[in-house]
Specification:
Elements (H helix, E strand, L loop, with lengths): L1 E3 L7 H19 L5 E3 L10 H4 L7 H14 L4 E4 L5 H8 L5 E2 L29 H10 L9 H5 L3 H8 L5 H18 L3 H16 L4 H15 L8
Parallel strand pairs: 1-2, 2-3, 3-4
Amino acid sequence: MGIGALLGLDDYRFEVLAMVMHAEHLDRTFGTGPHTISVPRINPAENAPWAMNPPHPLTDEEFKKVVTILRLAVPYTGLILSTRENPSLRREVFALGISQLSAGSRTQPGGYKADDPEELAQFSLGDHRPLDEVLREVASLGYIPSFCTSCYRSGRTGMDFMDLAKPGLIKQYCLPNALSTFAEYLEDYASPETKEIGIKAIEEHIKGIDSEALRRTSRALVDRVRKGERDVMV
């Protein structure tokens, strides 16, 4: 399961403490902590004056502290960042522990239709860039975007997932699957500029894999994608 708090409603320190205690309770009681933790901040919204002046707004520095503490306190979880934050801050918090983020989001009803009015949006966005541009930046920063859903599809969930995630063993699945799913995006959907940067990032990551077996597995998956196969995974 995923947990999170809408930051700005109360003192962020108590919100963070509550999330960490919630994670600890889930782990102690059920043997499974949260798969993800989200950290959205209240943003201005049409016809919502209260959202323009939340009772406990966070500064950017406080927000970065939240991300850092959660990463240290719950190291196995995925930390999710939304498009509420601007590109500059999103870029910074990658280095602090964010592992998942949204891109090209729309928050209004029917928002993914062409020319849909933005005044109906649930809240304002800080990052309006399309998916391709966000992926290009992520790859240029030295990270590999991943579209992998293999754990859900293969049954690596709950305690089975935690047994791999907590000691860091999940990387033997995450890394090759990230490389192959990103390679598939580059082949089928990416702009020429993003494809060039992405291919370079993939090759650099494969070269940097310490384990020979994992390196061979990753290379094999990426090569299969480039030869026309799709939806390959371990």
